[in-house]
Design a protein that fits this description.
alpha/beta
Length: 192
């Protein structure tokens, strides 16, 4: 289950209700995967209805994010415990967190939805300080300071703020920015 912008969305901050979700034709033996965002009340309702119909519910999401407070996490996990049959975390660390919070081992899994660091570390190990300086000199950036952004490029990242600051001279002229990532906001900035 996800936002489908072809359906009406009603926002009553901080909650969202979206029309159009249906379990028609589904029953025992079927599985519904829901986003674990408790602000999406229509998702919670569909998960509740699925449970009543004997449909298995997979709860997928950030169970604790950088912006969550302990009370919200507690509420989210209580709701997840009631509505879900299986919990999906993005990382093994997320699985360990859920296990510490009392979820059973056979009920919690990781999707591995993060970057594999091994090839990155291997590539970094081939870049000595001397090789990096030579590359910087060749690019004409050896005397610059760098702002590095490695991110999913979404509008909420607000890279436009840094870009505007660079173009207005608010940030010193010796600062350059490198962006590594992809996402739906890429066309907004005209990058490829």
């Amino acid at each position: 289950m996800r936002y489908d912008y072809s359906h009406s969305i009603f926002k009553f901050s901080p909650f969202v209700w979206q029309r159009g979700f249906s379990l028609a034709g589904m029953g025992k033996g079927d599985v519904v995967v829901v986003c674990g965002d408790i602000h999406q009340l229509s998702i919670l309702w569909i998960a509740f209805k699925a449970k009543l119909k004997g449909i298995k519910v997979v709860w997928w999401g950030h169970h604790k994010s950088s912006t969550s407070n302990d009370a919200c996490v507690f509420i989210r996990l209580c709701i997840a415990r009631i509505l879900s049959d299986v919990m999906l975390a993005y990382t093994v660390t997320g699985v360990k967190y859920l296990l510490k919070k009392g979820f059973s081992e056979g009920r919690v899994f990781a999707t591995g939805n993060t970057i594999n660091q091994r090839p990155i570390k291997t590539a970094v190990s081939h870049w000595t300080s001397e090789k990096l300086r030579t590359w910087q000199d060749a690019k004409g950036i050896s005397s610059n300071r760098l702002i590095l952004c490695c991110s999913m490029l979404r509008s909420k990242v607000q890279l436009d703020v840094i870009i505007r600051a660079l173009s207005l001279g608010i940030i010193p002229s010796d600062v350059i920015m490198a962006v590594i990532g992809d996402g739906d906001a890429l066309p907004i900035w005209g990058w490829r």
